[in-house]
Design brief:
about 375 residues; alpha/beta; SH3 type barrels; Elongation Factor Tu (Ef-tu), domain 3; 3 domains; six-stranded antiparallel β-barrel; five-stranded parallel beta sheet
Length: about 375
């Protein structure tokens, strides 16, 4: 008689992953709960501008307690896996480097691509689990015709998290379950409540785990201060689209493409950051109309529904998590780069952000905007 399948559930302490554990338990699966400890929330609390409170951020110590309580309630084994060193090396430090270079990275995507799924699957194997299950709103299935695992948008489009998952490999998709892919969020809360879980009404975390309030500048200063490193001097000129110097700034790390506030300029018309030039330290500003772009180039590509891009294809592209996908023609530049030509100009195409390519609900693949 074959041994029953063991599933490792990635438990964040939130309602979604807790509901996944309750659902799979009710279906009779053998489960093991896993939580990755990624960041010491109080680590930078003593530095100027960093708050003492950590409420509202994912992966806090309160979330760990909540995950453990749910595991106890469901009577499943639970393990807390310390990955703080790897998280700092593979997510935090690259984030800092990118931001100091005038780009705007997405730490949640970095975390999924380089750490969470990789480490969860490694740990799952070590403890004898066949697959992992997560609370992400996404769908995956194997297409025997294409001989590929396919990642698709969930039923609840308002909770779609595929933008953050474009880096998953075929092996990772083959060993991952997304039980909430066919559900909507209100139904998930009802399911958690009916299972008697204390987290059923818990609010969703809204902040990046290591950046309270989304205040990147304060975090950068605090982190570099802790490391004993000075904030690099990247002060320079604010210039118009014609190259005219119209002001000065204290550092390129203070800007992101599309930014309007904090420019320190007076103008009869609103001005926005158009480009950040790390070599010259110049920041180009212009009108809202100047923010529109017809194309983008992306690298560090990962393909999901196709093995590689050979001929140009039609796709819709998300350039931000909340961006409405825009139709474009995607073509290969070379082995490591693709170019997208949009049907209509798009606002604030931002270097360092992800571009994720879709056909209908399927994720074709994605990359990082250069």
């Amino acid at each position: 008689m074959s041994q029953p399948e063991i599933i490792a559930v990635a438990m964040s302490g939130g309602v979604d992953s807790s509901a996944v554990a309750a659902l799979l338990r009710a279906q009779g699966h053998s489960l093991i709960g896993l939580t990755l400890q990624l960041w010491n929330q109080r680590r930078l609390a003593g530095h100027e501008g960093m708050p003492e409170s950590v409420q509202g951020r994912c992966c806090s110590i309160d979330d760990v307690y909540d995950a453990r309580r749910v595991a106890e309630q469901l009577d499943i084994p639970y393990y807390l896996v310390n990955q703080q060193d790897r998280f700092e090396a593979e997510v935090v430090k690259p984030f800092v480097s990118e931001y100091l270079a005038g780009r705007t990275p997405i730490p949640c995507t970095l975390c999924n691509n380089h750490l969470k799924f990789d480490q969860l699957l490694i740990t799952a194997r070590q403890i004898g689990a066949d697959r992992i299950a997560t609370g992400h709103y996404a769908r995956n299935h194997f297409d025997s015709v294409r001989n590929r695992w396919i990642l698709s948008r969930p039923e609840d489009k308002s909770k779609d998290q595929t933008y953050f998952l474009f880096g998953l490999t075929q092996d990772q998709l083959s060993r991952t379950l997304f039980p909430l892919g066919e559900m909507n969020k209100p139904a998930v809360r009802v399911m958690a409540s009916e299972a008697g879980l204390n987290v059923a009404a818990k609010p969703d975390s809204q902040e990046i785990c290591f950046i309270p309030g989304g205040d990147y500048n304060t975090f950068l200063k605090a982190y570099l201060d802790e490391q004993g490193e000075p904030l690099p001097d990247s002060s320079g000129e604010l210039v118009s689209t014609t190259g005219e110097v119209i002001g000065h700034h204290a550092g390129i790390h203070s800007f992101t493409v599309g930014q309007r506030k904090g420019l320190g300029l007076t103008s009869p018309e609103p001005l926005y950051v158009l480009n950040i030039h790390p070599d010259s330290h110049q920041v180009t500003v212009g009108s809202d109309a100047d923010l529109m772009s017809r194309d983008l180039v992306a690298n560090r590509l990962n393909w999901i529904s196709i093995p590689e891009l050979i001929e140009p294809i039609r796709v819709s592209i998300k350039i931000r998590h909340r961006h409405t996908p825009a139709m474009a023609t995607l073509s290969r530049v070379d082995q490591h780069h693709v170019r997208a030509l949009f049907d209509e100009p798009q606002r604030a195409v931002t270097p360092g952000q992800s571009a994720v390519f879709y056909q209908e609900d399927e994720v074709v693949g994605g990359g990082w905007i250069v």
